[in-house]
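Ticket 4471: requesting a sanity check on a complex prediction with C2G. Repro inputs:
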Amino acid sequence: MIRVITYGTFDLLHYGHINLLKRAKEMGDYLIVGLSTDEFNKIKGKECYFTYEERKKLIEAIRYVDLVIPEESWEQKVKDIKELKIDILVMGDDWKGKFDYLKKYCKVIYLPRTPEISTTQIKRNLGLMK
Ligand code: C2G
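Returned structure tokens:
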């Protein structure tokens, strides 16, 4: 049983997120998503449209996702990988290199982002952002 984990805010869920989650699941048998809490998003400097509970409901509804856990800090990944017996960490390649320190605990794979779509782009197009 290959256990995969990925982390993110996943606000205004879109097909770029789905592409990432689909490919992450294809890497193994069980996919865990560390979903950034509202408090952690503040630390990340991200304004969310949906609350953690609302985003959690959306992510849990995705067929590729087996478990959603809260992501409350940058530092929790090592503990998560150990406690959840993670084999692979998957992130979009906007994070390329940033999680290489975790290579001593599990495989770390960066996947190409889906071009042209982002939560920021959606907000801009809807006039919700400058
Ligand atoms: N993503 C993607 N293609 C897009 C947009 C996002 O592949 N067009 C990927 C990102 O690379 C990331 C995941 O979808 O792997 C979630 O994106 P965000 O919600 O923006 O996540 P982020 O704020 O980068 O949080 O500790 C890690 C952080 O919590 C990652």
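Notes from triage: The mean pLDDT is 97. Leaving this open until the requester confirms.
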